[in-house]
Write a structure and sequence with these properties.
Number of domains of chain B: 2
Oligomer: heterodimer
CATH class of the largest domain in chain B: Alpha Beta
CATH superfamily of the largest domain in chain B: HUPs
Number of domains of chain A: 4
Radius of gyration of chain B: 19 Å
Largest sheet of chain B: 6 strands, mixed
Strand order of the largest sheet of chain B: 3-2-1-4-6-5
Helix content of chain A: 25-40%
Helix content of chain B: 25-40%
CATH superfamily of the largest domain in chain A: P-loop containing nucleotide triphosphate hydrolases
Strand content of chain A: 25-35%
Distance between the termini of chain A: 66 Å
Number of strands of chain B: 10
Number of helices of chain A: 18
CATH architecture of the largest domain in chain A: 3-Layer(aba) Sandwich
Structural class of chain A: alpha/beta
Order of helices and strands of chain B: HEHEHEHHEEEHEEEEHH
Largest sheet of chain A: 7 strands, antiparallel
Shape of chain A: elongated
CATH topology of the largest domain in chain A: Rossmann fold
Strand order of the largest sheet of chain A: 7-15-11-12-14-9-8
Strand content of chain B: 5-15%
Radius of gyration of chain A: 31 Å
CATH class of the largest domain in chain A: Alpha Beta
Structural class of chain B: alpha/beta
Chain lengths: 634, 303
Amino acid sequence: MQTPDLTAGNIETYLAEQSAKDMLRFITCGSVDDGKSTLIGRMLYESKLIFDDQLSALEADSKRGGTQNGNVDFALLVDGLAAEREQGITIDVAYRAFTTPKRKFIVADTPGHEQYTRNMATGASTADLAVLLVDATKGILTQTRRHAYIVTLLGIRQLVLAVNKMDLVDNDEATYRDIESEFLDFAREIGADSVTCIPMSALTGCNITEPGKEFPWYKGPCLLQHLETVDVTQNNDDQPARLPVQWVCRPDRTFRGFAGTLVSGTLKRGDRVKVLPSARESSISRIVVHGGDLDQAQAGQAIMVTLDDEIDASRGNVICAADAPVEVADQFEAQVLWMGDEPMLPGRPYMVKLGARTVPAKLAQPKYEVNVNTLEHTAAKTLELNQIGMCNISLDEPLPFTAYAENRDLGGFVIIDRISNATVGMGLINFALRRSSNIHWQALDINKGTRAATKNQQPSVLWFTGLSGSGKSTVANIVEKRLTAMGHHTYLLDGDNVRHGLNRDLGFTDADRVENIRRVAEVSKLMADSGLIVLVSFISPFRAERRMARDMLEQGEFIEVHVDTPLAVCEARDVKGLYAKARAGEIKNFTGIDSDYEAPENAEITINTAEKSPETTAGEIIDHLECTGRLKPA
Amino acid sequence: MTQAHRPSHLEQLEAESIHIMREVVAQCEKPVMLYSVGKDSAVMLHLAMKAFYPAKPPFPLLHVDTTWKFREMIEFRDQTAKQLDLDLIVHINEEGVRDGINPFTSGSARHTEVMKTEGLKQALDKYGFDAAFGGARRDEEKSRAKERIFSFRNAQHRWDPKTQRPEIWRAYNARINKGESMRVFPLSNWTELDIWQYIRAENIPIVPLYFAAPRPVVRRDNELIMVDDDRLLLHDGEQPATQMVRFRTLGCYPLTGATESSATTLEEIIAEMLVTTTSERAGRVIDHNQSSSMEKKKQEGYF
């Protein structure tokens, strides 16, 4: 910061210039000891932002605990915690503000150690740009890749690769070019499209605030020049209007204001809006701010609106442009960065905060984990601290959302532990698993819990799968009779019966079989929602569709019963004479003959009717339900 | 301001602070705003008036009075609460008063610990507040630069810098268990210059002590200490002299150093600030004890 010539006359001009400046939020990241804190300390120092008393404290601290042999250790300016100064490392993110004649900056200095990745993500989540440091003597490291991956994942479009410590490699161009080209290859793979590479030395101050004479071969800007001029405007104004309701203001009976930050688009008085998830429509009546109403509000403003109609809207609802409402869903595919000390437990209830709503939610077993070094997708049963993976997540209630790529506020969620209330993960929504964009969920006063409670039972879906003739329907029939005798409310969906009605239009091709199961899964979900114990007796030959049915239901509700009777036994029984016809070629696509049966890998219950009587196996199923607590009252 | 335009950095900071305040009111059961009567508190209070308008801020103000604040601060405090028609809770650590704790014989560190930190914890416990707004800024001090906007405190009001919750996007997590609390800093990302610019732009009233005026002071331990009342016992040879001084920061008067200044307008204050070579906390006697003293105090429950 150059000290302006401040006489009484020109302070006004100075202040006018100050208030016209825009603001850039950036982070420094990269591996341990690549010089992040030193770089920030250097920038603050060069910008004359370090006061005399801070400098003398810094000099004293540098002698006592610095890593620069008693010379000024700039890292100590940002490593503000006692533990950090003791260990000479950065543990948590530090925020510093500085100003140049062109821009205001807030910089977050983030830790390089893998174990503190969650703190790095904290800094990155609010940044427009990332300065990724790399030590010229070491080149691209795993942490360099990890941080590049995370900042790109978080949607930071501008990336600066700061090749630091060039003085230690004699300012050698070839070393720089090797690092640059290796990184640009990696950047392409992760989809980071705007990368600027800059050689520098934070310790000597070379190419930071002024172009370094040490690199005659480098023609680009120095770091500060780049930061002052790079375009990071996010055109959120051009998006459709989205106002998540944070708080409802009711100072008296006549006023009902919906307060929130407009996260995208613009809102004008008179605009038609739709409130999600209820999908009720109205118009903007007033945009109320202290000191007079606004005619129009821009993305980023914290506003309060009133509507023309008496519409019920509460915290967590989203007021949208009527012609472009957000979607509403309760199941998503999302990229998850796990930040808890304890690993993620698929199926455990967590709380998820999405927009202004916090609801119970469950994560499914990850589809894969990302190896940030090789970018390979590997199978994973869970996510440990700092691991990134792709997961399905289901919420207890449908919420308005967008994809993260479209909007950070409505597409990013945090995962909260229900016991400690700690933030244990962050998720970025890719898409909803079941789209319901145009069919809005009607909130009903009587819900699943109420219905189940009046029946004094927990809803469950017993899904019998197995070959034709394996005994599914026989066993299901006995189980249903026993449950009814015990006072339970049930319904049995039988494959043959459903094909006479609801699925009359479907044949036996793979596509039709998938649709057959999808419909039955939806019906069983509705029945479970009505509080029933549903028995489904369908061949349902494909794992993917059984998995789909499982994912539709709440954790524990779906109980897969594999009726594992060998093909030879089924064929020998041939109750309906179908195997004979299939063998004779009269029936096509017959499961077990010319169409595959994919046996379950982790069925809750497996029975074999070739070895035991239907009554015995039915008894085993009832026992299982009792042991696992499914037959207890809701 | 009726026409929409591209938000300036002050407007961005304002929107962020308002968002934070609304989030606290929506998520927490019983919030309170720590009102220390200084310029940062003035800005914070002004933002609260804006955040909930046309309603009043749905929380009371709390002033932890060490009984050693400048008289003008107390006057300004009472007048502000009355003018804005807000609930003001003034809490004094009566045990401390009974024990005769004072900045002189008890020492600055003990005085601050008992009258400020202990007093604050007493007040938060007494009223059962689960969230308390504070006007601290990250540019004030290096351990503040490390603190989250939503800063979790355990049931003993302690800050644990090693286990801070990740704070992602604007998705602030204010969930706590019974007895735990949140300290929330809506001005985290503001700088001293931003505060002054905003006071000027929004015409926010501040305590007159920030402006230079002839005031009776003595020089003690290299600080100019104002003789605000007769409790300031003069050392041998000390003779109060009237000097043009002002304060960059306000605390307990015997612990707050004045600076010689002729700045009587906001513009002059800003101009002076821009050429100054010491940080604003340099005037705080209590911060100098050791280089991580703020972090230690914060761990013990200090704001």
